[in-house]
Amino acid sequence: LAPLAVFAIVFNTAFSFGTAIFATLLLYVVTVVTGLLLQQFGVYSLALVAARRSPLGFFRQRREVYLYAFSTASANATLPLSLEVAENKLRIPPRIARFVLTVGSTANQNGTALFEGVTVLFLAQVYGLDLTGGQQVRVMLMSVVAGIGTAGVPGGSLPMVMIVAQSV
Fold it and tell me: Cα separation of 155 and 60, whole Å?
């Protein structure tokens, strides 16, 4: 029944908001993906250069982890493979790799925070809610805090989106 239910939701949305909502949804998707790509390849590349590492070499060595993370859509599912790659390919000492990657898989959820913030701002625009600058900053801060407590499973950030939305 899931495909029929999804079709019904999409049909109801198009009927309620008009077909122009799909252009808005496309802009939302492009915004989220662009933000994630800038974080991954912009910010992290600068951090790697500052650490005197080659970003291309690093990303190449981590390729299988990225593929696995993309296919599972779960930060926690990639942890064993991330540990293996960090210790064997990147030559990070096991005690450092295990500590940093374990804490990082829970607390360093930048993509989740970005997704939550953009989603709440998108929903506010769709429903015609004008958020003040202070409310937008609150969305940003709450998204970062909520990202820390979000489960690393597919769809784990959706309850946090509702909490952030209710806070403003």
Answer: 28
